[in-house]
Amino acid sequence: VITGVxxxxxxxxxxxxxxxxxxxxxxxxxPVRCFEASTFGAPFAAEMDLPELWVQEAAERTGLDVLxxxxxxxxxxxxxxxxxxxxxxxxxxxxxxxxxxxxxGLEVLFLPDVVALYDxxxxxxxxxxxxxxxxxxxxxxxxxxxxxxxxxxxxxxxxCETFVSACAxxxxxxxxxxxxxxxxxxxxxxxxxxxxxxxxxxxxxxxxLGALSPRPSADACRPFHAHRDGTIIxxxxxxxxxxxxxxxxxxxAKILAEILGFxxxxxxxxxxxxxxxxxxARLAIRAALRQARGPSISYVNxxxxxxxQNDPVEIAAIHAELGRVAVSSxxxxxxxxxxxxxxxxxxASLACFLEGQCPPTLHLSxxxxxxxxxxxxxxxxxxxxALLKNSFGFGGQNASIILGWPP
Amino acid sequence: xxxxxxxxxxxxxxxxxRGVGDATILLSSEQASFMAAEGAPRQLGTVPxxxxxxxVTQKKSLKLMNRASTLGVAAxxxxxxxxxxxxxxxxxxxxxxxGGELTTLTGMLSVSTTEDGGLDLRLxxxxxxxxxxxxxxxxxxxxxxxxxxxxxxxxxxxxAAFYTAGAPGGLxxxxxxxxxxxRQEASVAIAGGADSPLDTINLALSSYxxxxxxxxxxxxxxxGDVEWLGxxxxxxxxxxxxxxxxxxxxxxxQVRSTQTALFGETLAASAALWVARAVALLRVSPxxxxxxxxxxxxxxxxxxxxxxxx
Lengths: 407, 310
Hints:
The complex is a heterodimer of chains A (407) and B (310).
Chain A (H helix, E strand, L loop, with lengths): L1 E7 L6 H9 L5 E3 L12 E3 L5 H11 L3 H6 L2 H17 L8 E6 L6 H7 E2 L4 E2 L17 H12 L5 E4 L5 H14 L6 E8 L3 H9 L24 E10 L2 H6 L7 E9 L12 H13 L5 E5 L8 H13 L3 E3 L2 H4 L6 H9 L1 H4 L2 E2 L15 E2 L4 E2 L4 E8 L3 E8 L3
Parallel strand pairs in A: 3-9, 4-7, 4-8, 11-12, 11-16, 12-14
Antiparallel strand pairs in A: 1-9, 2-3, 5-6, 8-9, 10-17, 13-15, 16-17
Chain B lengths: L7 E9 L2 E4 L12 E2 L6 E2 L22 H13 L10 E6 L10 H7 L8 H8 L7 H5 L3 H10 L5 E5 L3 H16 L5 E8 L4 H6 L8 E8 L4 E9 L4 H6 L8 E4 L13 H15 L5 E8 L2 E9 L2
Parallel strand pairs in B: 5-6, 5-7, 10-11
Antiparallel strand pairs in B: 1-2, 1-8, 1-9, 3-4, 7-8, 9-12, 11-12
Helix pairs in contact in B: 1-5, 2-3, 6-9
C-alpha cells in the first residue's frame, strides 16, 4: 500500500497542491525559459522554476558542482519529492530500513563543457583536454551519483534499484517496488522517478525524432485530439512510500491507495515506433489484471502522449482489454515528464481516491475518430473499484499498474 | 499440490575481451589481452574479432545499435541456442551509461560556436540541430541494449533495465530473472548485462586500469544444470556475513568481481560475466557443487549462490 507521496511538479510542490491544480484544470505549458530555445522548433514545455535556494543547499550538502545541479535538474526535483513522501509517511516516527526503486532518464550532456573541448581550427573535439577521472566532465551527474545522493537523502540501507526503461520507468519503479514488498518481504521501499529533459540536447534530440509539437500554444500537447501534432516535454518528480498492508496498519499509517497489480511487457517490434497493433500494450494490461485478480477497472490514466502514432494504438488496446472505460491523459496538463511521467501521473490518479474525482484531459475540443472513448474532459466522480495506469517506453518497454481504494 | 519452481540456468552466451562464445570461453584463468589506450596509462579490453552482423538478423537495426546493444544481442543469441518458446519470455538486463561518442557532435559544434569559443544556442537551433544524426537518441538511451535484444529474439514478457555502474546492480538483474521464474511470471527469462564503457566520456569518468566492454546473457527456467539459490546483500564488507543468509556451507568455488585481469572492468556487464564464469566452472568442477559470486561496492557486499544440480 502507499502511505506517503511527494510531488515536485510544474503545477505545484506537494501532493495536495498538485491535485488541486490537476482537478482545477490548470495547464503548465509555456515557453521554454531555462535556455534560449527560440530556434529549436519546439517552443513550449511544461517547465518548473528551479529555486536557487535548492541549488545552494544541495551544493553545500553534496559537494556537487553548482553548475551541474543547475544543468541536470533531476537530482533536485527528486530530493524535494522524496523529502515530502517520507515526511508524509512517517512524520517524526522512526522509519524502518528503507530500500529504493528509482526511475530515471538519460544523463544530461553539459554543452558548455563539450564546447570547451571543441577546437575550431581543427573542427574536431580534442579529447586530450578532458580531465581524467574527474567530476569536471561533460556528464557531471552520471545516474549512479544521483542514485547515491537520493539514497543518502532517504537514508536508505536496503537495495537501491535504478530503472532506465525510458518513459515507462516511473510506473515500473512503483510496480517493481510493490513486488519487492509483496513477494520479497521488504518492510518499506520508497519508489518513484525524477527526470528533466528540458535542456538543449534533450529538446533538440526529441525535436529531431519529430515527437514534439511545433506550436507555441498552451494546447501544444493535446492527446486524442484530431489535430494533435506531438507532445511537449515536462519535468519533475514523484516519490511514494510503499509498505505491506499489515505493517502500515500496525503502525497506524494513513493509507492512500493499494497497489493491486503490476504487469510489464515488451513490444519486440521496433526501437523507433510502437507496435501498431498495440499487442505489447495489451500484454502489459493483461499481466497487471492477472496479478490483481481481475478487479473492475473504471478509469484509465493513459500514457496519452499526444503524438500521432501513440494515442490511437493505446485507445484500441484499452478497449480490447477493458471495454468502454473512462480515460484521460495528464500529459495535457504537465507535458511528458519522460522517465518521471508515470510517477507524476500515478500521483495525479490518486485524485480518484483522495478527492473522489478522475483527473481530466485538457484541450480536447475535437476528438480524433481513431481515439473515440469515454474521455474525461472535465473532472468527474470516480465510481468503482480500481484504476489502471499505463506507461509505454521508447524502445518498446511497457508497464501497467492497477491501484485500488485504501483497504 | 503445486510446488514453487526453482530457477535454473541453462544456456550461457558471452562476448568479452576473451572472445565470443558460450560459457566455456571463461574457463581459463589466463588474463585477457588488452590494448594500450591512446594517451592514458591504462589498457582497454575490446572484444576481439567481433562481427555484429553475424548475430543481428535485422540488418537495418545495425545502424541504430550502439556497441553495448550489439554485444548484448550476440551474447543473448548464443545463450538461447536451441531454446524454443521464447515469445513470452522475460528479459532482465543491467545496463550502463549511454554510449555516445562526443565526435558525433562536431558537425553541430562547427556551426554553433562563436569566435570567442562559446556556444550560441540560437545558432544551434537554427543550423546545428540538422547536423546531429537524428538517430543519436538510439545510440545514447540507456535501455537500448535491452530493447534490441527483445526485438532480435522476439521476447514479449516482463522486463527491466537496471542501470548500474558496478557488479552489485548486475546481480540484481539476474536475481530478478530468478524471481520471475519462481513467481511464474514467465516460464523462461533471459538475463544478464551488457556495457561498453570505452567511449571518451566513460573513460574520463573512471580511473580503472583495465576498462573493458562485454556482455553475458543466460537463460533462466525451471530446467537447467545450475540452480540459482539466491542473492544476499549486506551493508558490511564481510563476504562471510553476506553468504551466511544463503548457506552455512563453504562454497568451494568462489569468484569475485574484483578479479579484473580476467576480462577487465566491464561495469554493468561484470556481474553477469562472473556468474557466467561460475556456471562454467561448476560444470567442470571436480571439487564442489556450490559456487559463490561476490560483488563489492561502497554500500557493502552482495553474494549470489549457485549449485550444480546434475
